[in-house]
Amino acid sequence: MEHAFPECQKCKTGILVPLSDYGREGSSILYKAWVCTNPDCGFSLRIDNGDVSIGKPIEQSFK
Question: What is the total count of domains within the chain?
Answer without folding.
Answer: 1
